[in-house]
Amino acid sequence: xxxxxxxxxxxxxxCILESRTICVxxxxxxxxxxxxxxxxxxxxxxxxxxxxxxMRNDEATGCLAVLRATVGKFADKEIxxxxxxxxxxxxxxxxxxxxxxxxxxxxxxxxxxxVLKVISxxxxxxxxxxxxxxxxxxxxxxxxxxxxxxxxxxxxxxxxSVGMTPEGVAAVAAHFPMKPxxxxxxxxVIVNRVWGWHFGKPxxxxxxxxxxxxxxxxxxPINAKVRRA
Length: 229
Fold this sequence. Notes:
Layout (H helix, E strand, L loop, with lengths): L10 H8 L3 E3 L2 H4 L6 H8 L3 E9 L2 E10 L7 H46 L5 H15 L4 E6 L4 E7 L3 H8 L11 H8 L2 E5 L17 E5 L8
Helix pairs in contact: 4-5
């Protein structure tokens, strides 16, 4: 079934927007208030419904819907029971969110610790550090490839690559050293200094001749500033 807009055209939408329980004893009568209800009732096969909001910090983040194939009101004890289930669902969702946040924070801390270990083991050799940074960044972002480029004030150089085939590395390396400018994504990052690039949407400017699927690149702000190596 296709999703529908969050509005007051359905019992679920009204439940979420108004953060209140919605009881519909008969979907035929309910259609007078919720114009989308006849279509939803037909598709899901229900004649009465109960919608209870999932409340978090005094705001509904969803709803628990109980649908019946018969016409009739829900008893007070049934409504209370569904409200209890809704509260438990909110607790489960929040626990999952906190677990994922903790897991992500731990992964970032672990990655940072690994980089620091490599730095301590290689105080005079930056290559292992670059490789570890690229590899950990690639893993944390779920990426297929990782690179580190350096900039000496005049030219951009490829310091390392992770995840690419030798042929792929050679193809990218052929473009370096490179001057900063608007002719490639890497060069643009250096010029803009506070911009990264996100792949996945049509690029506003197609004048980028290389670097993976450059037609699907979008500039995204990042906190880190470019530093000269």
